[in-house]
């Protein structure tokens, strides 16, 4: 066996666990769900090829409106996350040095040392009618009675931003660290204002990181189930709730599979449109992430 063949076999051997993992837990389940989504029940235990599951999404306003609402809320959450993450990423990449930089990164990572369920329940303790913030408002005289801060769109956005902040900070830090400080110094020497420097130098340089973080945060928000359900209540109208209802409550796996693929397709379409509008290339964005 020559050296080239030996290397190919060694590479295949090293990749085998990952390929088996992806094939068994990602590809095969998606193929099965795709087949389920293209079937309709015509009798007890009898199924026939059909697009009825997808027609239901188009014909039923509740499902379409729920997806549009979920997409809009996810876009808003992504924008708010970017606004919060950019100053933090700039401080970590360009201001903090040594141990302080490490501490800042650990602080961003700290909430993820516990599960999403625990983090969301923490918000419930803070925001419920008998929670910490409500009692604080009453104690300071800013409210005369208990204040219910849960089950609002703003509450869902707070939870989504909190859960997604790290995934925006890391790509931004990676992009901003490669920005040469001499470019900013030269811009100031030439009389450039801070606003112009940010707009013409910093943001264009960080654009791949912004796009990468936005894609990750948007997809996480769009596919989030726990945060909208717990913080938004039964009337949160999140599309993942519709998928859960079809699979678990109604045992309609065909409809649930169709909704899952619609979520995947429509979200991918929105990401593609965002890349086209911003002029970013997918390869460059993935390198930034």
From TrEMBL:
It is found in: Cell membrane. It comes from Hydrogenophaga luteola. Residues 67-274 form the ABC transmembrane type-1 domain. Keywords: Cell membrane, Membrane, Transmembrane, Transmembrane helix, Transport. This is ABC transporter permease. It is a multi-pass membrane protein. Belongs to the binding-protein-dependent transport system permease family. CysTW subfamily. The keyword Transmembrane helix applies. The chain crosses the membrane at residues 71-93, 105-126, 154-173, 206-226, 257-277. Its main location: membrane. PROSITE patterns: ABC_TM1. InterPro entries: MetI-like, MetI-like_sf.
């Amino acid at each position: 066996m020559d050296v080239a063949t030996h290397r190919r076999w060694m590479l295949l051997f090293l990749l085998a666990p990952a390929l088996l993992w992806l094939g068994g837990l990602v590809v095969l389940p998606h193929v099965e769900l795709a087949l389920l989504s293209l079937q309709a029940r015509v009798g007890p235990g009898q199924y026939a090829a059909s697009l009825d599951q997808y027609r239901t999404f188009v014909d039923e306003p509740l499902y379409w409106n729920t997806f549009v609402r979920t997409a809009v809320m996810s876009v808003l959450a992504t924008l708010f996350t970017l606004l919060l993450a950019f100053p933090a990423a700039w401080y970590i990449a360009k201001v903090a040095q040594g141990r302080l930089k490490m501490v800042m990164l650990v602080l961003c990572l700290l909430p993820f040392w516990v599960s999403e369920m625990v983090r969301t329940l923490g918000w419930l303790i803070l925001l419920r009618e008998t929670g910490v913030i409500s009692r604080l408002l009453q104690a300071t005289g800013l409210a005369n009675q208990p204040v219910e801060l849960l089950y609002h769109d703003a509450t869902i956005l707070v939870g989504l931003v909190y859960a997604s902040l790290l995934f925006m900070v890391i790509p931004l830090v990676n992009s901003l660290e490669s920005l040469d400080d001499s470019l900013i110094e030269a811009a100031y020497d030439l009389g450039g204002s801070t606003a112009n420097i940010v707009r013409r130098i910093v943001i264009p340089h960080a654009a791949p990181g912004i796009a990468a973080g936005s894609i990750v945060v948007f997809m996480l928000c769009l596919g989030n189930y726990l945060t909208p359900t717990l913080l938004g209540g039964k009337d949160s109208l999140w599309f993942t709730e519709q998928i859960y209802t079809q699979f678990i409550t109604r045992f309609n796996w065909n409809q649930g599979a169709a909704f899952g693929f619609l979520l995947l397709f429509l979200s991918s379409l929105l990401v593609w449109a965002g890349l086209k509008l911003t002029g970013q290339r997918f390869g460059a964005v993935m390198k930034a992430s």
